[in-house]
Amino acid sequence: MSISPLSIPDLSDVDVEEAKQVLRAAVREHRTQRPKRKLAELAEVWVPTVLDFVGERELVACYVSTKKEPSTERILCALHDAGKRILLPKLGPGLSRAWGYFEPGTELVNMAPGRPPEPAGEAFDNSILSAVDAMIIPALAISRSGERLGQGGGWYDRALKQTNQQAAVGAMIFPEEFLDVPIPQDDMDVRVPYVIFPTEVLATDAAGKTFPLIR
After folding, report:
1. What's the rounded Cα separation, in Å, for the pair 210 and 88?
2. Sheet containing strand 141-143, strands side by side
3. What angle do CA 202, 69, 41 make, to 5 degrees?
4. Band of the pLDDT at 1, cuts 50, 70, 90?
5. Is the dihedral of CA 173, 174, 178, 179 positive or negative?
6. Which residues contact 91 (CB under 8 A, 6 or more apart)?
7. Which of 33, 83, 108, 143 lies most in the core, judged by the most C-beta atoms within 10 Å?
8. Beta bridge partners of 178
9. What is the pLDDT of residues 59-86, one digit of tens each?
10. At a CB cut-off of 8 Å and minimum separation 6, what does 159 contact?
11. Pairing between strand 85-91 and 97-101?
12. Exposure pattern of 65-99 as b/e (b: 16+ CB <10 Å)?
């Protein structure tokens, strides 16, 4: 089954929030074209690419993928096997945005409808991200300038504001989701310095002097 090119809607006459919603819908619809078999193949290919991106860095924030997202299931195990400590998003007290440590062999739990599974242990607020050496985040699309299109909850925009500037931050996306056109942004949005494709990592314009080059 071939996958058609991602068609970018005309966003010139809509406001920022509506433009984001239109673009999200286009990317989500495009992702439905990729069959489970292909997703599984790419999940394996992504593992060494992410390990190379992380390199010698020790504390890694990552995410638990859902359905049509780039899969992190194998990546989480590979990072653990490489001796990394791994933080995953979880809900804290009062449904606050928090993080917990991933322990292979320990079952992830569903804490709220529509949310990915998460660690069952202690919850740490976003301030723990100041100690993170590398951060692997989800995205629906990234522009050449590093503008990120997320799912709309603001979780990672808040998190990225807490990440120290020496951390390597990369978004896992499919190659066709790396856009030549600007992605509408508001004051909450944070640019991303790297995109992580299945077989390579590319720097966006946001890498510049603000973020370290990958070693």
Report:
1. 25
2. 148-149, 141-143, 178-179
3. 80
4. low
5. negative
6. 97, 98, 111, 112, 115, 118, 123
7. 143
8. 142
9. 999 999 988 999 999 999 999 999 999 9
10. 61, 89, 97, 126, 129, 135, 137
11. antiparallel
12. beebbbbbeebbebbbeeebebbbbbebeeeebbb
* Owner of token pair 């673009």: 23
In eight-state DSSP terms, residue 109 is B
Q: Are strands 148-149 and 141-143 parallel, antiparallel or unpaired?
A: antiparallel
Q: Name which of 201, 179, 204 is nearest 191 in CA terms.
A: 204
Q: Which residue has the tokens 């998460």?
A: 118
pTM strictly above 0.85: yes
Checking if the pLDDT of 161 tops 60, the result is yes
- Pairing state between β 134-138 and 168-172: parallel
Radius of gyration of the CA atoms of the chain, in A = 17
Q: Please give the structure tokens belonging to residue 66.
A: 């859902």
- Alpha-carbon distance of 189 to 203, in angstroms, equals 18
**How far, CA to CA in Å, does 54 sit from each of 59, 60, 145?**
9, 8, 22
**148 or 97, higher pLDDT:** 148
Token representation of residue 198 = 């299945």
DSSP state at residue 104: T
As a residue count, the chain comes to 215
DSSP string, 116-148: PPB--S--B-GGGGGG-SEEEEE-SEEETT--E
Query: How many CB atoms are located within 10 Å of the residue 34 CB?
Result: 14
The confidence score (pLDDT) of residue 16 equals 93
